């Protein structure tokens, strides 16, 4: 009898994990992130997102916005997109010349390092 209840609990745990699936067509995966400083002191945040819809002729979408922080920039870009946006698969982070000349440019990436779903092995390229 106890084994039966243990199997029921184990099956329930596995079934709960299957309910949070998100179809790939409804996800905006950010593969490239671009950051630079504007003349007025804001951060210019850019993203490149591949499209998985076969009906559209373009294979990627680029979004640019200006914000006070990187996190605020991602929030602004998220409002423009439909579906679930995630930067967890970002492969490359481009740092612009004006931002790279600052002494504490690495602190601008702090919000992405604190994100539990973000990858910390993205390649950082200074341009």
Automatic annotation (TrEMBL):
GO CC terms in record: membrane
Domain of life: Bacteria
GO biological process: spore germination
Pfam families according to UniProt: Spore_GerAC_N
Entries under InterPro entries matching the protein: GerAC_N, Spore_GerAC-like
Domain named Spore germination protein N-terminal: residues: 21-127
Protein name (record): Spore gernimation protein XA
Coiled coil, from the record: none
């Amino acid at each position: 009898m106890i084994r039966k209840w243990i199997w029921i609990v184990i099956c329930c745990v596995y079934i709960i994990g299957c309910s949070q699936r998100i179809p790939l067509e409804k996800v905006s995966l950010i593969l490239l992130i671009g950051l630079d400083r504007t003349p007025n002191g804001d951060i210019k945040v850019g993203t490149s997102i591949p499209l998985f819809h076969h009906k559209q002729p373009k294979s990627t979408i680029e979004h640019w916005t200006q914000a006070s922080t990187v996190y605020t920039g991602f929030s602004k870009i998220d409002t423009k997109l439909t579906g679930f946006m995630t930067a967890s698969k970002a492969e490359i982070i481009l740092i612009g010349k004006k931002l790279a000349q600052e002494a504490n440019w690495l602190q601008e990436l702090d919000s992405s390092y604190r994100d539990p779903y973000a990858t910390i092995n993205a390649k950082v390229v200074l341009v």
